[in-house]
Design a protein that fits this description.
transport, mainly alpha, Na+/H+ antiporter like fold, ion transport, elongated, sodium transport, cell membrane, Cation/H_exchanger_CPA1, 686 residues
Length: 686
Amino acid sequence: MGSFLLIIQIGIAVVISSLLSPYIPRVSMPLVQIFLGILWFFIPGLPLINLDSEFFLLVFIALLLYFEAMHISRSGLRKNLGITLSLAVGLVLLSIVIAGYTLTFSMAAIPLAAAFALGAALSPTDAVAVAQIGADAQLTERQETVLATESLFNDASGIVSFQFALVTLITGTFSPLKFSLNVLYSFIGGAAVGAVLGIMLNHLIVWLRRMRLETTTNRILIELMFPLLVFWVADDIFEASGVIAVVAAGLVARYHRVGVGEDLAEVNRVSGAVWDVVAFVLNGSVFVLLGIELPLAMRQTIVNDKVNTVGMVLTAMVLCMVLYLVRFFWIAATLRTTKSHETGLRRKMTKERWHSAAVMTFSGAKGTISLILAFSLPSQLDTMTDFPVRTAFLFIAAVYIILSLLIANIIVPILAPAEKDEDGHKFALANLEMLNRTLVAISRIDNPDQHIAIEAVMRSYNARIARQRGKVLTPEELATLHSARIEMRHWQSTWLENYARRNPQYTDACQRLLAPIEYSLTHDGAGWFKHVRTRMYFLRLKTVVWIRVMRAAIRFLWTRTVQVTTRSEDVEYRRSEVTRIQLQLLQDSIHHAFILINYDQVPPVVGSTIVSELRTLIKSLQMPSMAKPGATTFESFPHQFNEVLSQAYAIELETIRTMADKKEITREQARTMRHNVFLMQSDSVA
């Protein structure tokens, strides 16, 4: 039951992080998830975690690395293979040596082999953490490719080095030749196993496709099980690197790009959606687990009298600074010695290339693999000397990981800030692409009873696309448009309050129209006091209406003369009243927009955009039914239109989230798009 509770708590933390992340764009999601994991650690009843490193690598890391390898640029990997291997092998081995001697210099009681083991644990960059950096900073294509491929490959060299350091620590002997051969076999053997199995998977899925046996279900199951199988075969049967095998299998996978047809496109679309969810959940779970384990690693040091906590923090900071310097000069030397693809000559280190070296240096964040390896240190380390080595190392590893994540989150966006969209052209292109994808998704809504409403909603989206193509607003005009939309929603809220005050019998209809307006305003952080005041006002009105209803009911029971309509007739009547009031509200909103334009309270380009949006919505609501008699009545059409429009807005929000997750749009662009949808949702009543 304790493990089940742990899974639920981790899942809740991942969901909360996804909800919080859009509102704190300057803080990367891994840091949010780590913070939630630390909070979760202090929840009573949470079982202590004792993660098996092999199980963690198999279930979490294998799936994540396979997903990352499948989507990495093959051409970029070929162009930068030399730099990648230099960082994944050469830099890792040098970092282990430097870290080992730095630790023994700081703490003389530590055995050198144990220091090398901690250096090996801290040497690999974390693929999950590195993947998040691109969402917060503007990295070049080459920087992203090198960082991504480095994080995929350096796990193997770090893990093999860690294992050899432990063997040396226990046996007291070290063979450089045996170590070198094992590293080579781990890389080459793992790559060969992964490549062979990946090619076999390509042939298997292509054969299933040719025999018409490929379905969405078996395709997704095969994809999810395959990385686990590859890791197990390479690690247990061939005793090579399971990590490298999974990466190699992902790199040779091409079955999703072979063949054409609607069925294949649909299978690829569903498979991509499933992988997006799996990757997001696993990514989030990794960092939540990291947050839960960090207090475990630190607590042992804090309560141990033999360990100076302040001294351990200073040691971790010194080690972090030394390894970052080593990484910086190694990357700079690699860039200096690498030949240009165009000229075939080595290039001098310019200011831009030094800057690139700095960006790639601070992007080398550490993550959960480093902490898992640190936890794998044998407990005998605390008894081998008078100094509790393992306890101190766990604390140093935890502090080092936190520092590396903070540095990547703070310094990298400063060194490589996202480009400013001065003329609004990039946002216009991104918004246009988002609208087109949303329109395609809307066209897949299959409900014969709502075809007319779906057609009307698609026309409204086509109108938005046409407006977007016709005019590109600058960032200042976009901000003014956003403010004008909020002001218009406040005006509409006041209009509905006044209408309900003059016509108490329509209080329910007005409240139904007001609810989405209030919702959109609260999403923009505005109008909380007005939101509460309006709620209280309508509660008072509804009380008055209910008193009148009770009086009518009493008269009905007394006289038996009141004529009662059927439930369906009453529902249709309420819908028609809501639509009538909504149309009147939109007409008056257009009049108010023209007043704002005439009195120079909004620029004409902004005012005309709002008027165009309102007119499009009015035209959609007034669209006469073209269905067969009895299929869709004129009275029910506005209700169906609003239902489909609500679905369309949900699809649009999901499209925005997907594009943001895939880094096709920036966080700022995604936030602006979401705010626009929230404001437009206030015009629809489902």
